[in-house]
C-alpha cells in the first residue's frame, strides 16, 4: 500500500479557488502458487489485485481504478530437444473519472463529464522451442478478446445540469501466429522471424440518451478487420573478442485500442474525441549497432543508429482552438519518420561499484499529413529531441545498496501544431537499502532530489496556456518481503 500526498499542479501565478493539492493512494496484492513438473518444468497460477484513487488537482476532478489480473501457465520439456510454454490469462478492470470546465480566472469549476469505463480481457499464448545443434526454431500462436465500454453522464458547463447519458464501446478480437529461426556459428548469429496478425473490431456502437426526456440517437458501426505480415531479420557479426556489429530490419503492426476507438476525454480546456473509424498503424524500420567491451569486460560501450517510418499513426489532431476550448480528435495522421542514435555504456570499477549512462537523440517529424497539411515538417508531439541519464550504483545487499540517478529531457511540444512548448528539465533520484535478513530488505528512496518544478503539460491557447507542473521532492521508506520460490 502506498500514498502520495499534497502538491498543487498549477503554478502560483495561475492558481485560483478551484485548485487543491493532488494526491494518490494505491494498493497492490500479488499471490502465486507453483508446482514442479518433471526435471525443469513448472506449472503455476498467479493473481494480482490493484486499487488506486487520485485527486487530480481541483475540487471536482478525480479518478479511481480497480483491476484484477490472473494467469495460469505451464513450462515443460518434451524430450531432449523441445520445450513448450502455455499461458491462459484474464483481466477485469473498472475505471472512473470526472472532468470539469474551469472559469478563466480559476475561481469556479463545473462538472461536465462523469465517466465509467469497464473492460474485460481473456487471452492465451502457446510457444514451442526446438533445438537442432546450433539452431533454435520457435513457433507459436496467441489470441485474445477485449470488451470495453465508456459510460458517461454529461453535464452542461453553464448550468451544471445533467443533459444526456452517452454509452459507447465494442469488442476487439486479435489472433497472431509467429515463428523464428535463430542460427549461430562461431562469429555469426542470424535471427529471422515472421509474424501474421489479424485484428477484428466487433459490435461497435454509440448511443446518446437525452435527459430528462427525448428520443435516443445512436450509431451501430460496421464490423471491421485487418491483417498484417511482419517480418524481421537481424544479423550479429563478432568482429573480434571485444567488438561486435549488429544490423536489423523489421516491419510491425499495431491495431487501435478500444480506448482510442470509443473513449473521449477532457484535460482542462482541451477535449480529445474518440474515432470509431481508426485503422491500424504500420511501421517499417532498420537499425545498426556496435558493441565494444574492454578491461576484461568491466567496461561496455554500445552505439545504435536507427530509422523508423510509421504509416497511419494514431495521433491527436487539433480541429479547433479558442481561449475557452481546444478540440482534438484521434486520427490516422499519414506518416511520421524518426531518425536518431542511442549511446550508452557502463564501467564496473569494483565488484560492487558501477557507473552507467546513456544519451538518445531522436529527430521525429511528420512527413505526410493529408488530413492536416500544415503539420508536415513539424515535430511529433511529446517526443523530446535529446534525452540523457547517468547513474552511480553501489550494490552490496548485505552491507549497503545505494544508487543515485540523474535524468535530462530536452524540449518537446505538447500538441500537434507545435504551439505548446515544454521546456527541458533535469531531475535526480536516489535509493538506499540494506538486506536485514534473507528475503527482507529495508529501503529509503527519494525522487526529484533538487526539488526542481518543471512543466509537464500545457492546455489551452498558446499565449494563455494553463501549466501543470511535476511533483516536488518525494520520499518513501519501507520494508520489502520476498518469499522463496519452489525449485
Pattern of helices and strands: EEEEEEEEEEEEHEEEEEEEEEEEEEEEEE
CATH architecture of the domain at 1-251: Beta Barrel
Q: Indicate the mean pLDDT.
A: 92
Percent of residues in beta strands: over 45%
**Low-confidence parts, pLDDT < 50 over ≥5 residues?**
none
Level of helix content? under 10%
Taken from the alpha-carbon principal axes, the silhouette is globular
Say what the CATH topology of the domain at 1-251 is. Answer: Maltoporin, Chain A
Helix/strand/pairing category:
mainly beta
Tally of separate helices: 1
CATH class of the domain at 1-251: Mainly Beta
- CATH homologous superfamily placement of the domain at 1-251: TonB-dependent receptor, beta-barrel domain
Beta strands, count: 29
**Alpha-carbon Rg, integer:** 26 Å
End-to-end separation in angstroms reads 29 Å
Largest sheet: 21 strands, antiparallel
Kindly describe this structure.
This protein has a 21-stranded antiparallel beta sheet that branches. It has a four-stranded mixed beta sheet with strand order 13-14-18-17. It is 1% helix and 70% strand. With 487 residues, the protein is mainly β. The mean pLDDT is 92. It has a domain at 1-251: Maltoporin, Chain A (Beta Barrel). 15% of the residues are buried. A hairpin with a 4-residue loop joins strand 15 (281-294) and strand 16. It has one helix and 29 strands. It is globular, with a radius of gyration of 26 Å.
